[in-house]
C-alpha cells in the first residue's frame, strides 16, 4: 500500500486499511495454527537469516507487483509478458546452473517426476499469464491480499501428500483472510490528480523590460507614402 501510495498515487479509504488489518489478523491466526500443529519443530539452524531473507523477498515481490501494475495500466501488457519471459528465463537459468546444479544431477528421472515438473511449469505459466490481467482490472494490493490464501491451499495439499496435522484454526484463518479481501475489493480506490506547478504572478523588472523589448521588436513597422494623386498608401514590414 505504501508503494502504491507514493508511486501509483493511489489513495485509500478507511475501509481499505480495516480490510488489510483483517487480512493480517488472518495471517496471525494461520501462524498460530502452525505453532499449535507443531510445524515449527522442523525449523532450520539459521532462523534469523531465514527471516531476513523472507522479508527481503517479500519487499522485492511488492516492488515487482507495483511495477507490474504501472506497466500493464500505462504501457503494454504484451511487452511486459515478453520481457518477463525473456529475462526470467535467463535469470532462472543462471540461478539453476549456479545454485541447484548438483540437486538436478541427483534426481532419479522417471515419468512421474517429469510430469510433476511439467505441471509445475504449466501452473507458473498460467499464473504469470493471468496475473497482469487481474492486476489491470484490480490492483497490486488486492492481488497480494489474495495471495495470502496460497499457504492454505498448499496446506490442504500437504494434508494428503505430507500428512500435516490439521487444525480448525486453518479454516478460521482462511475465512478471516477472505472477509478482509472482500472488504478491500468492495470499495474502489481513487487516484490523486497531479498537482499543478504554480506560475509566478510577477515577472520582475528585468523580465518585464525584456518582454517590452520583445514586443517592440515584434511590432510591424508602418510606412505611409503619398503619391501625386494624393492617395495614401500604407504598408507594413
Automatic annotation (TrEMBL):
It is a multi-pass membrane protein. Keywords: Membrane, Transmembrane, Transmembrane helix, Transport. InterPro entries: SLC35_F1/F2/F6, SLC35F_Transporter. The chain crosses the membrane at residues 12-35, 47-66, 78-99, 111-131, 143-163, 169-186. It is found in: Membrane. One of its GO terms (cellular component) is membrane. It comes from the Eukaryota. One of its GO terms (molecular function) is transmembrane transporter activity. Belongs to the SLC35F solute transporter family. Putative solute transporter. This is Solute carrier family 35 member F2. It comes from Cairina moschata (Muscovy duck).
Amino acid at each position: 500500500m505504501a508503494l502504491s501510495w507514493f508511486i501509483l498515487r493511489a489513495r485509500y479509504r478507511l475501509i481499505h486499511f480495516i480490510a488489510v488489518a483483517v487480512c493480517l489478523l488472518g495471517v496471525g491466526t494461520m501462524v498460530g495454527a502452525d505453532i499449535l500443529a507443531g510445524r515449527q519443530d522442523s525449523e532450520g539452524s539459521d532462523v534469523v537469516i531465514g527471516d531476513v531473507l523472507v522479508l527481503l523477498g517479500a519487499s522485492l515481490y511488492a516492488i515487482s507487483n507495483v511495477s507490474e501494475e504501472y506497466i500493464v495500466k500505462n504501457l503494454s501488457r504484451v511487452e511486459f509478458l515478453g520481457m518477463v519471459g525473456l529475462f526470467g528465463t535467463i535469470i532462472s537459468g543462471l540461478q539453476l546452473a549456479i545454485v541447484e546444479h548438483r540437486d538436478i544431477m541427483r534426481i532419479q528421472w522417471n515419468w512421474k517426476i517429469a510430469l510433476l515438473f511439467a505441471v509445475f511449469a504449466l501452473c507458473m505459466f498460467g499464473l504469470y499469464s493471468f496475473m497482469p490481467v487481474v492486476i489491470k482490472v484490480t490492483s497490486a494490493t488486492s492481488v497480494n491480499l489474495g495471495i495470502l490464501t496460497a499457504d492454505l491451499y498448499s496446506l490442504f495439499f500437504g494434508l494428503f501428500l505430507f500428512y500435516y496435522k490439521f487444525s480448525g484454526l486453518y479454516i478460521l484463518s482462511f475465512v478471516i483472510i477472505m472477509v478482509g479481501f472482500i472488504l478491500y475489493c468492495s470499495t474502489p480506490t481513487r487516484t490523486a490528480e497531479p498537482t499543478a506547478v504554480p506560475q509566478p504572478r510577477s515577472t520582475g523588472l528585468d523580465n518585464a523590460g525584456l518582454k517590452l523589448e520583445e514586443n517592440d521588436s515584434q511590432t510591424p513597422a508602418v510606412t505611409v507614402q503619398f503619391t501625386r494623386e494624393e492617395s495614401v498608401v500604407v504598408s507594413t514590414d
